[in-house]
């Protein structure tokens, strides 16, 4: 097949979404999803990098490759890559050409570490990455809950905590105080979440950007808050998140669920997750999707208890590695709220 590789534009996103959907055989990827993700990356206060290409033949897009930096695990020399070719166009050199384009681009930027993923039920994709020097890092499951299968659990917040949405909490205590309280627990929960790539702390600028994403669901972030009379009035003890799906108004994705260290082992995370899912069910939501690393055993157990069922795992793979001294410096600067 004769094809060319060129930089992608926003006008390509409908076709790119179709390529990604067909290549991975899973959740539909819409042009709106791609546009929102690109906008988030390009406008992020960290100055994140984004580059995208398409393979095209006779005006038809038959492959896609992308390079992006993620805010939550950001390091200036770490990049995440995506490469997709629909099955009907496989084994014709398209994937190889796109991979070579990505490689040349990253070498020009002095890359130290590259992350990619392949489905465990697609051994050819795993082998493609292994031939290019990638090795397995960890496995992540997409767990799907059909809301008709939600298991009713009689759980509630223990005495001394109250349930509120982030939206209402901001109105109650003020924007700055609410976001700082949210950020403190958000960072602490992410820091202790089992993962191979360390979570980088979010600054206040990061949090503001995070909550301006087009998929932000104002009614989807729920908090367990300490009332007056405890150590700190209005402390966010735990949180859980649901995010909109731009391609399907009846589907949501989960974000972080976690508890501040001082408030753990009291059932807060489970109670919050149940409350959020029950409210979503009453709003007519049909499906909720969550992603969990295989090493995150506590959250996998909670999701299974609620009725989530795992899809084939994504094998997270890595080429190269960030030296620990360099990474520690970046995380230290981020924890102080500096832009990096």
TrEMBL record:
<protein>
    <submittedName>
        <fullName>Mycothiol acetyltransferase</fullName>
    </submittedName>
</protein>
<keyword id="KW-0808">Transferase</keyword>
<feature type="domain" description="N-acetyltransferase">
    <location>
        <begin position="3"/>
        <end position="158"/>
    </location>
</feature>
<dbReference type="InterPro" id="IPR000182">
    <property type="entry name" value="GNAT_dom"/>
</dbReference>
<dbReference type="Pfam" id="PF00583">
    <property type="entry name" value="Acetyltransf_1"/>
</dbReference>
<keyword id="KW-0012">Acyltransferase</keyword>
<dbReference type="InterPro" id="IPR050832">
    <property type="entry name" value="Bact_Acetyltransf"/>
</dbReference>
<feature type="domain" description="N-acetyltransferase">
    <location>
        <begin position="169"/>
        <end position="332"/>
    </location>
</feature>
<dbReference type="InterPro" id="IPR016181">
    <property type="entry name" value="Acyl_CoA_acyltransferase"/>
</dbReference>
